[in-house]
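lol forgot to send this yesterday, sorry. struct tokens for the thing we talked abt
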């Protein structure tokens, strides 16, 4: 069995572009909310897990998020529904690798109760430090759920064979990480929020918020270095890129 990636489309959010890019105008941009199903001979991995069920079922929760973003999210967009579309039971997920703890990446964790969570140690510490948690917009109800958690420092080879590697890309948040996946067809790097859009990887503007933009710029340089070595980079919220992806990459 080879390694594969299946993109899961877990809804959309819309907001003025100026929220996501410094110096941009107020035209509305729609961002896909992805999760990624990675199959490896020794385990099944989710990279990020979309939104919390409360964003569908809890009107006050949806209203809080809608103060900043317009949500296009239905029950069929929850990660469990998207897994069902791929004939995969949530109980069959061995690992959830979290790029970071923001609500649109870690919110679906409650729907995957049996998986081991893999997260950067710096990110996990920030999630339980009141000052850093508030500064980074983390919500403990998304991730403080009693899962078995493995915290890692820097790059981490999940299966020990170089096929699925957590890649430390801090800056957007204290311990943001991307995911390198070595497919038979070549390496793919799932950038997550280190780079929202394709043009972010070409020197485009960074968001007006974030933990450390200098650190994020260095992390983007790490990503583009992988591209110079032949990797395909998939930005975190680029609608055109998501639309262009096949249902399975291998």
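and heres what i got for the seq, position by position
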């Amino acid at each position: 069995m080879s390694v594969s990636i299946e993109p899961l489309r877990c809804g959309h959010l819309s907001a003025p572009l100026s929220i996501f890019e410094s110096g941009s105008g107020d035209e509305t941009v729609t961002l896909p909310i992805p999760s990624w199903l990675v199959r490896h001979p020794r385990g099944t991995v989710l990279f990020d897990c979309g939104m919390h069920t409360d964003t569908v079922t809890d009107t006050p929760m949806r209203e809080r998020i809608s103060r900043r973003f317009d949500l296009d999210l239905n029950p069929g967009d929850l990660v469990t529904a998207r897994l069902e579309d791929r004939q995969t039971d949530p109980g069959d997920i061995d690992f959830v690798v979290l790029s970071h703890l923001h609500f649109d990446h870690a919110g679906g964790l409650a729907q995957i109760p049996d998986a081991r969570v893999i997260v950067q140690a710096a990110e996990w510490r920030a999630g339980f430090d009141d000052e850093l948690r508030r500064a980074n917009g983390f919500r403990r109800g998304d991730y403080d759920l009693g899962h078995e958690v493995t915290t890692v420092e820097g790059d981490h080879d999940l299966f020990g064979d170089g096929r699925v590697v957590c890649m430390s890309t801090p800056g957007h948040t204290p311990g943001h990480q991307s995911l390198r996946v070595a497919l038979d067809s070549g390496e793919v790097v799932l950038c997550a929020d280190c780079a929202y859009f394709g043009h972010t990887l070409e020197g485009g503007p960074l968001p007006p918020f974030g933990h450390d933009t200098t650190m994020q710029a260095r992390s983007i340089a790490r990503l583009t270095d992988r591209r110079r070595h032949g990797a395909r980079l998939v930005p975190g919220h680029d609608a055109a890129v998501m639309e262009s992806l096949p249902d399975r990459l291998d």
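The domain at 4-244 is CATH 3.60.15.10 (Metallo-beta-lactamase; Chain A). anyway ping me if u want another try
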